[in-house]
UniProtKB/TrEMBL annotation:
SUPFAM superfamilies (UniProt xref): P-loop containing nucleoside triphosphate hydrolases
Pfam families, sorted: ATP-synt_ab (PF00006), ATP-synt_ab_N (PF02874), ATP-synt_VA_C (PF22919)
PANTHER family (UniProt xref): V-TYPE PROTON ATPASE SUBUNIT B
Keyword Kinase: no
Protein name: V-type ATP synthase beta chain
Record-annotated ATP synthase A/B type C-terminal domain positions: 355-455
Annotated ATPase F1/V1/A1 complex alpha/beta subunit N-terminal domain residues: 10-65
A molecular function GO annotation: ATP binding
Family: Belongs to the ATPase alpha/beta chains family.
Domain ATPase F1/V1/A1 complex alpha/beta subunit nucleotide-binding, chain residue ranges per copy: 131-350
Record lineage: Bacteria, Bacillati, Bacillota, Erysipelotrichia, Erysipelotrichales
Function: Produces ATP from ADP in the presence of a proton gradient across the membrane. The V-type beta chain is a regulatory subunit.
Length: 473
């Protein structure tokens, strides 16, 4: 049953307050009618006894305490869902903005999701192939995982997101049962157009659902965008049995919206002005990834966030790192060298990688190759530090080989470009080719049997040359 009230007790910024309100619920939706007959939508964000504070989506311009009728709708925000949402573009609250008409929903779901019993979760296994060697080979994305990308201002995280959407797919019998939900928060018009145009031109839009909140859209809509995206993902996964990859960019914009609304409500700030409940707020989004026992589908998350001043200890990346299962870090030094995508593999980590690779998933030697590439690249950093002191000409022969290995590893393996799509076999073969440029005695993380089977310096140069040709194309 809905309830209508006349007048307001307070108007402050984008917030309005009502006194003597009974039986109101947190997150309840509100319809607000102004004196001129226009209506606006709001959401209850705070309840203090019989006082309710409401966030107005379109702002409070033109409102006074006497000319407003407020109708409590008796339900939280709900999203209309059906399989028709695939291939469509919506705004941050789920309204179509692609000119293709309304979606006829099969059901409505609360955007806040449903509590998931931890016992009903299935441990994530099997991988999602992104076609990007630095991810697939060294920081593998596992189905049902939440693996964020930590970026910085000016780094090409948008291009990386487009590349992942364009190339990501499953292998095996579930390969066709895959889709992507893309949520963009606080992006500029040209960036939103770039996302939409890129997906349409590459022919992947039919498997993508987009929720776009622009930088000039209401702040409260920005807080709802990831919830709408995840609600759609849960429907496609658990109702339609699909494996869904959710990409959310930029979570820092979302957190700034949370901070702004918290400040307008007069809440006591914590680190950097963010509210003390930011951790639990982010967890309510990130923990909506996973696989449910007995279900056919899965929800995998790649949240993208920009670190202010490249500070990984900033509250947003810091709290995100606590909740999620690893991180992909974009490196500014690599970007300045012209390496794209500039993934810093030594700073990156996929905590679930070990359980979704190897025999039966990727290839039997995957873990060994990844360990040796990590170890060899770490020694490259030691050789570079030494060269900065004594000069490269004074290095030992082995250190000089590490220097050359490092240059090739960065330019070919990591810097594969935005249009090269490598299979996991190509990635691992290229890893072996690069390791074969080092002396066999330096490969101390590999089983001698594997070295005997795969170590081939002569064939390595041909494999590396072929990889360079693919990048040039």
């Amino acid at each position: 049953m809905s309830l209508q009230l006349l007048g307001l007790s307070d108007v402050r910024g984008s917030l309005i307050a009502l006194d003597h309100v009974k039986n109101v619920s947190n997150e309840e939706m509100v319809s607000i009618e102004l004196a001129d007959g226009s209506t606006r939508i709001g959401r209850v964000t705070e309840i203090e006894g019989e006082r309710a504070v409401i966030q107005v989506f379109e702002g409070t311009d033109g409102m006074s305490k006497t000319n407003v009728k407020t109708k409590l709708l008796g339900h939280p925000m709900e999203l209309g869902l059906s399989r028709e949402i695939l291939g469509r573009t919506f705004n941050g609250v789920g309204e179509p903005i692609d000119g293709l008409g309304e979606v006829y929903p099969e059901k409505f779901e609360d955007v806040n999701g449903k509590p998931l019993n931890p016992v009903s979760r299935v441990y994530p296994r099997n991988y999602i192939q992104t076609g990007i060697s630095a991810i697939d080979g060294l920081n593998t994305l596992i189905r049902g995982q939440k693996l964020p990308i930590f970026s910085g201002s000016g780094l090409p995280h948008d291009q990386l997101a487009i590349q992942i959407v364009r190339q990501a797919h499953l292998t095996g019998e579930d390969s066709e049962n895959f889709c992507i939900v893309f949520g963009a928060m606080g992006v500029k018009n040209d960036v939103a157009d770039m996302f939409r145009r890129s997906f349409e031109e590459t022919g992947v839009m039919e498997k993508v659902v987009m929720y776009v909140n622009l930088s000039d859209d209401p702040i409260v809509e920005r807080m709802l965008t990831p919830r709408c995206a995840l609600t759609a993902a849960e429907y496609l996964a658990y109702e339609c049995g699909m494996n869904v990859l959710v990409i959310l960019t930029d979570m820092t914009s979302y957190c700034e919206a949370v901070r702004e609304i918290s400040s307008s409500k007069g809440e006591i700030p914590s680190r950097k002005g963010y509210p003390g409940y930011l951790y639990s707020d982010l967890a309510s989004l990130y923990e909506r990834a996973g696989i449910i026992k007995g279900g056919k589908g899965s929800v995998t998350q790649i949240p993208i966030l920009t670190m202010p001043n490249d500070d990984i200890t900033h509250p947003v990346p810091d709290l995100t790192g606590y909740i999620t299962e690893g991180q992909i870090v974009l490196d500014r030094d690599l970007y300045l060298k012209g390496i794209n995508p500039p993934i810093g593999v030594l700073q990156s980590l996929s905590r679930l990688m070990k359980d979704g690779i190897g025999e039966g998933y990727t290839r039997g030697d995957h873990q060994d190759v990844a360990n040796q590439l990590f170890a060899s690249y770490a020694k490259v950093q030691d050789a570079r530090s030494l060269a900065s002191v004594i000069g490269e000409d004074e290095l030992s022969d082995l250190d000089k080989k590490y220097m050359e290995f490092g240059r090739r590893f960065e330019s070919i393996f990591i810097g594969q470009g935005t249009h090269t799509n490598r299979s996991i076999q190509e990635t691992l073969n290229l890893g072996w080719a690069l390791l074969s440029t080092l002396p066999a005695s330096a490969l101390d993380r590999l089983d001698p049997k594997l070295i005997k089977q795969n170590y081939d310096p002569e064939h390595a140069e041909r494999t590396i040359a072929l990889a360079l040709e693919q990048e040039e194309k």
